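Progress note, sequence design subtask.
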């Protein structure tokens, strides 16, 4: 673990060793989106959960980040996995390019997640 978010304290803790590392922006975006997740409506979180359920029914393998992949291997139906998947998706979308390694989630599922984020965060659906 390189970072942690404490929503109630409004605090993000990063390991000192991350300073100057190329992965820092990716990790920071991920952690910031934990705060976004906490502010989303139940309906919006349920919508993202339904998107992941579609992936499960479609036998999607892989993820967009390590934290979600680890949780997915333990229990893909848990709230922790859904939140980590949301935050890893945000980091994949919003962190500078070239920092993501190789996403293991197939392109068709990545495209669906990108469209979901665009729909939610362009104001067309209330959060």
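Output:
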């Amino acid at each position: 673990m390189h970072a942690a978010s404490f929503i109630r304290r409004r605090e993000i803790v990063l390991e000192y060793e991350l300073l100057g590392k190329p992965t820092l922006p990716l990790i920071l975006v991920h952690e910031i989106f934990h705060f976004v997740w906490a502010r989303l409506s139940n309906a919006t979180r349920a919508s993202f959960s339904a998107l992941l359920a579609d992936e499960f029914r479609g036998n999607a393998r892989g993820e967009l980040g390590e934290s979600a992949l680890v949780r997915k291997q333990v229990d893909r139906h848990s709230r922790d996995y859904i939140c980590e998947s949301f935050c890893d998706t945000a980091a994949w979308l919003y962190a500078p390019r070239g920092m993501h390694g190789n996403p293991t989630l197939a392109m068709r599922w990545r495209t669906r997640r990108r469209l979901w984020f665009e729909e939610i965060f362009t104001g067309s659906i209330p959060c």
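The mean pLDDT is 87. Work on this subtask will continue into the next period as scheduled.
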